[in-house]
Amino acid sequence: MRRLWNEFKSFAMSGNMLDLALGFIIGAAFAKIIDSMVGNVLMQLVAAIFGQPDFSKLFVTVNDAQIKYGQFLTDLVNFLLLTAFLFAVVKFIVFVGMGRGRAFVTQQCPYCHEQVQPKALICRFCHQQLVDEMPPLDSAQARLAELNRRKLNLPIPGRRKEVASDSS
């Protein structure tokens, strides 16, 4: 019983569990902000365009039963605006560099048993080399530059994309 309790304590107080709890709390707060933006700003723009804040009063009566298609339309527009705005926010976060560099898969260092990124050459905890042979500096810098190239390519109004031409 004591061993089971110790395993549970290790699990509950591990860094992964605390990261998950913190991520959940921040995610819930972030969801409230996104929902407020969509409900209080974007849906009000819909109201300005169509003359009413929602379509919930629209219905059809069939055999004394009301089919409330307006509420469905309101929920559909709300969902589409919410997902589009959330997509734009995530793309912006990645663009400014806050979402880059996060590895979702890790490997365990064979020396200190800490979790490191799968492409790590040296363990950041015990500083042991994780590859048989270290690449030359210019190769490592090129690898880093390739990782940093993951930027969002949004079309900017007024700027045209250049098309590469074949000059063979």
Please outline what is shown here.
The protein has 168 residues and is mostly helical.
Low-confidence runs (pLDDT<50, min 5 residues)?
Answer: 151-156, 161-168
Order of helices and strands: HHEEHEEH
How helical, in percent, are the residues?
40-55%
Q: Which strand-content bin applies to the residues?
A: 5-15%
Annotation, overall tally of beta strands: 4
Which sheet architecture does the biggest sheet show? Answer: 2 strands, antiparallel
The CATH architecture term of the largest domain is Orthogonal Bundle
Assign an overall shape: elongated
Q: Might you state the CATH topology name of the largest domain?
A: Non-ribosomal Peptide Synthetase Peptidyl Carrier Protein, Chain A
The overall pLDDT, averaged over residues, is 78
- The rounded Rg comes to 26 Å
Word description of this protein:
With 168 residues, the protein is mainly alpha-helical. It has 2 domains: 1-101, Non-ribosomal Peptide Synthetase Peptidyl Carrier Protein, Chain A, CATH 1.10.1200; 103-138, no CATH class. 51% of the residues lie in helices and 6% in strands. The protein has 4 helices and 4 strands, in the order ααββαββα. β1 (60-62) and β2 form a beta hairpin. α2 (15-50) packs across α3. The longest helix is centred in the first third of the chain and has 36 residues, at 15-50. Mean pLDDT is 78; it is low at 151-156 and 161-168.
Strand and helix layout:
Blueprint: H1 2-12, H2 15-50, E1 60-62, E2 65-67, H3 69-95, E3 107-108, E4 115-116, H4 137-148
Antiparallel strand pairs: 1-2, 3-4
Helix pairs in contact: 2-3
